[in-house]
Amino acid sequence: MTTSDWYHMPPEQRLKRTIDGFKSEQALWILTDNDGAVMLTTDEGDGIPVWPTQALAKDWANNEWSSCTPKGIPLTDWLDRWTDGLAEDEVDVVICPVPGEDGLIISSDELAHYLTEM
Predict the structure, then answer these.
(1) Is a pLDDT exceeding 80 seen at residue 113?
(2) Which of 10-28 are b and which e, b meaning 16 or more Cβ less than 10 Å from the residue's Cβ?
(3) CATH code of 27's domain
């Protein structure tokens, strides 16, 4: 699947493909800068954007995000450390945003459920 294919996919389909990608690669990708993981502010709130591939994360790192670097997080680390921390901080997860669209926003607990139950 090309990067362009992801851009034309409806958000619900992107969610399923993203979860499948996390599971098959046993990792997910975030963007970091000098202050740590970057946050995306949307109309629905703040969230940490996640992508199933380094290429998709890197593609998002342009314009105001051009100083950001993709960072892979092993799935076990995400589930063991990030899920509870994000929930405690009331920070959601933005699933595979693409140019022109923020992506679906779910809680870290919902993401953990998708990763462990589906």
Answers:
(1) yes
(2) ebeebbebbbebbbeeebb
(3) 3.40.1350.90
Domain that holds residue 87: 3-117
The sheet with strand 104-106 has its strands ordered as 40-42, 45-50, 92-95, 104-106
The pair of three-digit structure tokens given for residue 28, joined into one six-digit string = 């997910």
Nearest to residue 118, comparing CAs of 19, 12, 50? 19
* SS3 (DSSP) at 56: helix
Determine how β-strand 45-50 pairs with β-strand 92-95: parallel
Q: In this predicted model, what pLDDT tens digit does every residue of 49-84 receive, in sequence order?
A: 999 999 999 988 877 778 899 999 999 999 999 999
Instruction: Take residue 10 and report the two structure tokens written for it.
Output: 């409806």
Task: Quote the number of domains for the chain.
Answer: 1
Tokens 């294919």 correspond to: 5
CA 103 to chain CA centroid, Å, is: 9
Report residue 111's pLDDT band, with 50, 70 and 90 as the boundaries. Answer: very high
